[in-house]
User: Fold this.
Amino acid sequence: MNISTVRDSACVRCFGTFRDRTHDSPEGGKECPDSRSGLAESHPRGSLAGDMGSGGVSQQTVVEIADFKVSNDPTIELITYSLGSCIGVAIWDPVALVGGMLHFMLSDSTISPDKAVANPAMFADTGIPLLFRSAYSLGASKKRLVVKVAGGASMFQTTERLDIGKHNYLALRKIFWRNNVLIDSEHTGGCLSRTMRLEIGSGQVTIGNHRMKQVAI
Assistant:
């Protein structure tokens, strides 16, 4: 289902929004990029690198909750489950054929510095820079990266202040805005859990769950 065509208001609320190529300020201001969040290419750092292969997808690699992986193996499909209020970030360089995926849980590492040191992928402000730097270490270029995002759902009825999905999404948008990173497409919000897949060889990203068919974003 292409959720951008859903007319019923309840369905829109549950299935969230689908957008292409967004780079407006999360607070409605003008673009003001910098490198304060560490997405510049001058700080490479590796994570997981596959061996180069050929052909289509032959194996799946699971990105767990509060986890990330990068690869240059075109036979690998990265997949992450249970993107509720959590957010999945998929990046892909079509020239270097390097891709990566992050599944972060919370927006701000300052709420638990010890956990951020032990597992930086748990938080947006530590996990996103780590994902990008790890992709750079395999030959990806920031200017070529295709960035796609999923998740940020409101899984429970709660106040806006306690809406973890919304806070996660706003944190991600601020980090990207400050670092001049475009979101090519996204499947976010609503009140459903998502599964996200990234094929390293083709860059195809799909979203689905038990209530909807896999859709490419």
The chain has one domain: 45-216. Residues 95 and 155 are 37 Å apart (CA to CA). Residues 1-18, 28-36, 42-47, 49-55 have pLDDT under 50 and may be disordered. The longest helix spans residues 164-178.
